[in-house]
Specification:
about 375 residues; 15 helices; Rossmann fold; 4-stranded parallel sheet; alpha/beta; 6-stranded parallel sheet
Length: about 375
Amino acid sequence: MNKKGIFISATNQHIGKTTVCLGLISGLNKRLNKVGFIKPVGQEHVTYQDVRVDKDVVLFKDHFNLPSTIESMSPVIFDRGFTRDYLDQKVNLDQLQNKISSCYQTLEKENDFVVVEGTGHVAVGSICDLNNAQVAKQLGLEAILIAEGGLGSSFDRLTLNKDEFEKHGVKVKGIILNKVIEDKIDMVENYMTKALSKWNIPFLGIIPFNCFLSTPSMADYQSLFKTEVFSGKENLLDHYKKYSLVACSETRFEQTIEQDQLIITPANREDIILVILSHYWDQKIASLPFKTGLILTGTTPPSKSIIEQLKKAHIPALYAPLSSYKVTQKISSHIAKIQKEDMEKIEEAKQAVESHINFDLLLN
């Protein structure tokens, strides 16, 4: 097996692969001279320097100032229609595999170690013969599996994904459990170690649940609703611990307004918006902090007067032309992702992961 790299996969989406990779590279940079990053197969792409690449690749290249070319870090993108094109034989598998191998070999020569991030769970990409296990096998890499904290259900998912790796001859080097509730860490570690002993696969780390890493910012909501804030752009990366749908009287609302709160209310409820503005100016006069975001809903957009007042108060606000109920539904199911501009969350992710990884086992 290739000892200059490791393949990072997970048991499902939203388990925290990118978060873990941030911590891994941060820790490896303290132990090795040059650490590279590649995501062989990406699904969510952005345009970076006129090149279509996976969005995670941009995060890692910019944050760690990686010298490798962006093209070599994101060789294949599964965009809309890719699967149909593949099944219609409009896409050549050999060419895709050669591109992945060539890009990895370039990074391998440039670095002492390469972190390879997979896509979703191990079987993602199977319909195009480029799932995580197949790519790891092609590159001659061992794998690390990340599962969400727990015991029975986590082990079940680990079993399914481990078996897929082993079917393709890929060794699972270690297991990382992410988002484990703090007061259950000792119990989970004790019993999961017993469960893993039958496989002879070690724990590489147990990462406690970190509430801040799951806390969205207004930048997340911009992406979710595919729009931009019309005020408070300088506070775009404020994070909100809770969200509230407000449709009550302004008097009742005034008694419940809190800090670190995202407020969802119809754009035509100017009485509610004026209460927020009044609270902001009261806090400012008293030199007290004020951190509240605003999503305005409904078929009627906010008035010019309200927009101007929110701009003066620098309150981050956006308008989503949906019902308050639909907006709340979308927010409740939304998983906040780390964005490259969100330095506070990136640093938190690095520290949270790095301090709980056994790097000696990883590099052994």
